[in-house]
Design brief:
Elements: H1 6-9, H2 37-56, H3 58-77, H4 85-102, H5 109-117, H6 123-141
The structure holds zinc ion (ZN).
Length: 158
């Protein structure tokens, strides 16, 4: 059974915006039979963060509420299909932003170049493998030619 005061006493949470430590409101409290303590802990944690944002960073809350509503729209739309290209474009934009915002890893070119160089391939094969690895990374991370239009550089042509 987890320590009911674990989140407040043993782990630090610091606001990235103002560097304030978040210590109040994260205590889980005594265990209740049938209650999922981890869910309760996560809910308390989220509530403490929301409270901090609401009191110290109101401008961020407006954006979060809008993003939350858009994400709910996206999830709801996944049960439907439409031929309306403007709606499909909007939903794809919301999905692409969520994907990029929540992406945990991205492998930059020098890491790929170094990893492929260690394979000791002939220069032609090494170049092909590097190109393929970068194309695979771009497809999975939705970068480069696979990026949503909103992330692409504005065209220089008029
Ligand atoms: Zn803060």
């Amino acid at each position: 059974m987890p320590d009911t005061n674990e989140s407040a006493l043993t782990h630090l949470t610091k606001c990235r915006l103002c560097k304030q430590d978040i210590t109040k409101g994260t205590e889980v409290g005594p265990a209740i039979i049938g209650e999922n303590q981890q869910n309760k802990k996560r809910a308390k944690y989220a509530e403490a963060l929301k409270s901090h944002l609401a009191s110290k960073h109101k401008d961020k809350v407006v954006g979060l509420i809008g993003a939350g509503h858009e994400f709910m729209e996206l999830l709801g739309s996944m049960y439907f299909e439409t031929t309306d290209p403007s709606i499909n474009r909007d939903m794809e934009r919301i999905r692409a932003v969520a994907h990029r915002t929540t992406r945990k890893h991205y492998m930059p070119d020098p890491v790929i170049d170094d990893g492929v160089a260690r394979l000791n391939l002939d220069p032609f094969a090494e170049d092909l493998v590097k190109q393929f690895a970068k194309a695979m990374r771009d497809a999975l991370c939705e970068e480069g030619q696979y990026a949503n239009e909103i992330f692409k550089e504005p065209s220089l042509t008029v």
